[in-house]
Amino acid sequence: MAGHASILSEKEYQHFIMERLNKDNGYVIRKAVSYDRLFAVDREMLFKFLNATQPDEMAALRKIYKDDLEDTIVSLINTEETKARGSLLNVLKHGIEISNMKLELMYTKPATDFNKDLLAKYEQNIFSVMEEVWASDDERIDLVIFLNGLAIMSFELKCNAAGQAAEDAIFQYRTQRNPKTRLFLFKAGVLVNFAMDLNEVYMTTKLTGEDTFFLPFNMGNGEGVNAGKGNPVFEDRYSVSYMWEDILKKDTVLDLISKFIFIETKEETDELTGKTKRKESIIFPRYHQLDVIRKVLADVRENRTAQNYLIQHSAGSGKTNSIAWLAHRLSSLHDADNKIIFDNIVIVTDRVVVDRQLQAAVMGLEHKAGLIRVMDDKCNSADLATALKGNTKIIATTIQKFPYIVDSVANLKKKHFAVIIDEAHSSTAGKDMAAVTKSLGSDYSISEDIVEDVEDVITKEIGKNGKQPNVSMFAFTATPKPTTLQLFGRVNTKGQREAFHIYSMKQAIEEGFILDVLSNYTTYDTFYRINKEIEEDPRCKTVDAKRQIARFVELHDTNISQRIEVIVEHFRQSVMTELGGMAKAMVVTASRQGAVKYRQALESYITKKGYTDIHALVAFSGKVKLPDDEQEYSEPSMNGFPEDRLTKEFDKDEYNVLLVANKYQTGFDQPKLCAMYVLKKLKGVSAVQTLSRLNRICPPFEKHTFVLDFVNTYDDIKAAFAPYYTTTLLSNSVTPTAIYDLEAKLDAYAVLDPDDIDKANELLYKPKVTGKDKQKLTFYFNKTKNLIEKYELVKQAEIVAMMRHFVRFYEFLLQASCFEDVDLHKKYNFVLYVLAYINIKHPGGGYDLDGKIKATNFVQKKAEEHVKSDLVAQPVMKLPTAESFNLTEAKEERLSQIIAEINSRTGKSYDNDVAVKAMLQIRDIMLKSEKLKTSAKNNSEKDFEFSYFDNIDDALIEGLDQNQDFFSLLLGNDEIKREVLGIFAEEIYNSLRKA
Questions:
Q1: In 412-453, where does DSSP find H-type helix?
Q2: Burial of 991 (0-12, 13-18, 19+ CB in 10 A)
Q3: pLDDT at 145 over 70
Q4: What CATH number did the domain enclosing 466 receive?
Q5: Which InterPro entries does the entry mention (predicted)?
Q6: How confident is the model at residue 434 (pLDDT cuts 50, 70, 90)?
Q7: Are residues 57 and 162 in the same domain?
Q8: How many domains does the chain have?
Q9: Are 369 and 498 contained in the same domain?
Q10: What is the pLDDT of residue 192?
Q11: CB-based burial of residue 258 (10 Å sphere; 0-12 exposed, 13-18 middle, 19+ buried)?
């Protein structure tokens, strides 16, 4: 590269970092020759620290050990670090004992500044850095960081300018570093190993050769909606400068060691031997975890109990540890006047398992008797009251006791509480769910689908009581509902409510912590025909009828057997071999009866095919009976073991399919789940939570996910994910500004011609709309429709969604204020008709009652296959507002059936409610007709029908502005017109005769 100024080399980068550590952070730069590779220690620094901070102890020990003192201390430290239950972390936190004397190996910052001696010792911790350290004859490490002579961190640096990146450093750690080398020995060697280039940082706390798992340790790039993986780009400094400007600062390192890093122990049962083995890992916070704890603590220090905090952290963000760290830190937090801020920390969760994890995590941070108490199933409200009044600093309890906490806390005005709410959602599994279903009756009813989740319970409770001055709430959720944002969110500069801290789904996916479940998403359409099995046409309520038909179709044997064939064959061909043959699938059924019938169909299909590699379990609460079957079915009776063993059993290799009904759709963590087969309508938060069961990574495997959805459209599912993909904002106060913003977004698509809007409104407000007017209106709506259709499909959906949004917002604004804007109202009218005109709803076919209908011609046809997700964030949410129009009278139900028949005959899909409303309007127009009144009074019903049908066209033209498209169809098709409107002849005849 002669003639060019040399670009930064790896060596220069290394020196630059050392210089920064030395100049800005007071690190001592040491020569590599000072390193003792047998014990991973810099002896000179260790004894400099001990002699300076504990001179009396060292003098006493020198008398005992004389010249052997240094060797004795070094080997004792080594023994404590390398024994089975020992660790470097333990030695740093708790020191060592030698000849009845205690030697401290680091000093942490005191919680208050009362103790001047401790503060002075804290200042005497020695931080040093060494380059090119030979950890063994074959292993040379770029940088090693020492605390008081003990090696605590290793760095492999790469310089992008020299054509290498962090991935190369990771490769080096995996392939060229021996996990048995003393410097890298798990628990005894360094606490963390960093792979770092100029743009990104990755870390691991345990080297295991090729399988070593590195986590990103990046800040995230971009704000709010644009936040993703990586780090920000700066003009004047490196993207990773936060490492030496913040993370490697003395205070931060000591904070990390004393308050964050802990050893997690999990007990795992070996399936073959049945023996329990301990699996240990060193938990080092990821960047967003460290960031949220520090920011929350700083805010609480300033505001004490004045604020609530919403922490929107995606699945896969390590929430359990974040909560443990927060609880632990809040329990000892002092304000600027050295006063303790909270008397008690209450952790509210809906999962006892998480409580156990939390308890382990908190105890990992600090073994202090009575520090944390878990209120398990055996504890009642009285026990909780005692704990709240007592001295236990941290109390973990279940959601069921939450209303009681709210009451107790209100009575304990002198105490200050931090209430941490874990994942505002509920698993609705087990006893609670069974009790709900039981109390609402065992027949299929809406109770099976609509269960208040934890978030709703909490919202209600807090709503009743309001924010208490002595209580701060800290709510963790990946999917905040509008009500949660309203309660816990902070108002931003734009007046929207948002979370205090965000680690977005987008960032988690990009960083590889979770998988994008919208990739490999295939939808199936189910086609069938419903036939009436009885002569008369009963009158019945629409909602019931629709529900019964959907249910009838859903539980139809042909439908189930066809779907099971698709599911089993897809699982065997595409999924089963994933994760080295350990892949599992979940089948989400719409009801408990569905779960039973699908399981039966699956068993009979695999028996028929002779498959021996598929074994399924079911999960549903309570007991179920099927029509024409006397037997009672329950989860334990079908699985052959109690409910509480399900998660353990399903984890075993022998089971690979789980059929669920309202259970395990939330809060269920099974990394081996690779596929989901959806047989149930999923909406909003519930869709996100259910599909997110798949998103866990399963190292060391490269996991792929598959979704086969028989019920929902891909667009529906995308719409459910969009609000939670990045940041979720609540545009709560509906203002004219907001509606004008929406209008501007809509105008930007250039599909609405202002001239057309004016002309169309003139026609719509005419006293009498002629046939010619009708044609003109059709032309305007068609023109807009064509303009929309010029965009690609994704954009079309976006435009229609924006139009709907505009309509809903405007209607809400009209209801909520005395807002007036004639031009905007004209646009609203026009958009409303355009939406009706391009109607893209798909109502189901026909309806009737159980036992009186027959379903035939079932076909399961693959509809759409999405290999890569194209999700765009839609961060703005708002509180639910206007109620939807509802019709329940018997007369309207008969219509619904006819309308459904029209749908199937014409291939069009009209929205039932709109059409029914239109029909009723025509009826009212005709009931006011003087001409018909005269005819009814002077004719028989048969003769009256002649003048009745003559007058229909006038009524249709009059009602045209209600539903352009539907009325045009009636005007243009005599047979359908007679069938639809003939239904009113008798009623109108009788009514007008009496008038």
A1: 430-439
A2: middle
A3: yes
A4: 3.40.50.300
A5: Helicase_ATP-bd, HsdR_RecA-like_helicase_dom_2, P-loop_NTPase, Restrct_endonuc_type1_HsdR_N, SWI2_SNF2
A6: very low
A7: yes
A8: 4
A9: yes
A10: 97
A11: middle
